[in-house]
Amino acid sequence: MPAIQLTPAQRKEFRAEAHHLDPVVMIGGDGLTAAVKKETDAALNAHGLIKVRVFNDDRTERETIFQTLADELGAAPIQHIGKLLVLWRPKPEKVRAEDEDRMPGPRDVKILKFSKRGGQRPEVKMLRVLGNQRLTAGGTVKRAKPKKQTSVKKRSQT
Length: 158
Prior knowledge:
The protein is an alpha+beta fold. It has 4 helices and 8 strands.
């Protein structure tokens, strides 16, 4: 019996989310090996919701692989359809390192510039905003204001 029990509504939502996913783990002719379990566990930690493809024609063996993966990895079995298995496990919280308090790096921002005339579509622009920049309300990129520098004398007095 898997550790995680889901309601039919939750299972339905996960099936809908998994519809567009590609299989992350492939199980070949050797079946369920320790390496396959390790890769499945790593994929569940990274993605949470994964698809597994089993290249085996025996349906009962696929069922046992599905249940074994769910039981041993503590995942919820979502769906078994054909040779595809869908598993879900909540992603673990990431452990933050000490130096992760830094400002974020560059990020891409989508900006809509609306036309002065009413009937035209807005112009879509992709801008890259660096860590030392900010985006104004008008959609322009400005440098962040630098910290006011103090002299060495004033720092030593305080």
